[in-house]
Amino acid sequence: MAAVEVINSYEVGTGRLERTIASRETTTGSRLAERTYTYDPAGNVTKIADTPVGRVADTQCFAYDHLRRMNEAWRARRRTNRAGAR
C-alpha cells in the first residue's frame, strides 16, 4: 500500500488555506484529490471545490448571517438550507 502525500498552500497575507492536493507517493505521483477554498471578506469559507482525478467534481457552498453564523450550505447544483428545504 502506497503512502499518501498531502500538500497545502496558503494565501499570502491572510494565511488562509487556499488549496490541498493529495497524491499517492509513487513514482508516477498519482493525484487523488485537489480542493480549493474560497472566502468572503470576513474570512468565512464560502466555497470548497473538490476536483478529484477521474471522478466527478463536487462544489460545496456556504452562506452566513449578519453574525457570521453559517445559515445555508448547498452543493453547486442543489441548494438546501439547514432545515433541508430546497
Task: Give the tags.
86 residues; mainly beta; Lipocalin; six-stranded antiparallel β-sheet; 6 strands; 50% strand; flat
Structure description:
By secondary structure, the protein is an all-beta fold. The protein has strands spanning 4-10, 17-24, 31-39, 45-50, 58-64, 70-75. It has a single domain, classed as Lipocalin, CATH 2.40.128.720. Helices cover 0% and strands 50% of the residues. It has a six-stranded antiparallel sheet with strand order 1-2-3-4-5-6, with no helix packed on it.
Secondary-structure map:
Blueprint: E1 4-10, E2 17-24, E3 31-39, E4 45-50, E5 58-64, E6 70-75
Antiparallel strand pairs: 1-2, 2-3, 3-4, 4-5, 5-6
Short description:
With 86 residues, the chain is an all-beta fold. The chain has strands spanning 4-10, 17-24, 31-39, 45-50, 58-64, 70-75.
CATH architecture: Beta Barrel
Q: Determine the mean pLDDT.
A: 86
Quaternary organization: single chain
Strand order across the largest sheet: 1-2-3-4-5-6
Shape: flat
Beta-strand level of the residues, as a percent range?
over 45%
**Helix proportion of residues, in percent?**
under 10%
Order of helices and strands: EEEEEE
> How many individual helices?
0
Overall tally of domains: 1
Number of DSSP-assigned strands: 6
Low-confidence stretches: none
Largest sheet: 6 strands, antiparallel
Radius of gyration: 16 Å
CATH topology: Lipocalin
In angstroms, what separates the terminal alpha carbons? 42 Å
Alpha-beta classification: mainly beta
Using the coordinates above, name the CATH class: Mainly Beta
